[in-house]
Design brief:
about 0% strand, 3 helices, mainly alpha
Length: about 60
């Protein structure tokens, strides 16, 4: 998944780093969903990671 997200943004200067970070966040959310057997935990974690990315101006 990280490679796919990095490949999509290949025209941007930090596309590999972006793909790695976003792919890792999605993988972490998926693992949390599987371990807790609750979709809400995975979605909550994904929302929290997105909010942290927005506050730190990662997506700018």
């Amino acid at each position: 998944m990280s490679i796919a997200l990095g490949w999509i943004g290949r025209s941007q200067p930090h596309s590999f780093r972006f793909g790695f970070i976003v792919g890792s966040g999605l993988a972490l959310s998926l693992i949390a969903t599987v371990l807790t057997k609750s979709v809400f935990v995975g979605l909550g974690l994904l929302i929290v990671l997105a909010c942290i990315g927005i506050k730190t101006k990662f997506f700018a």
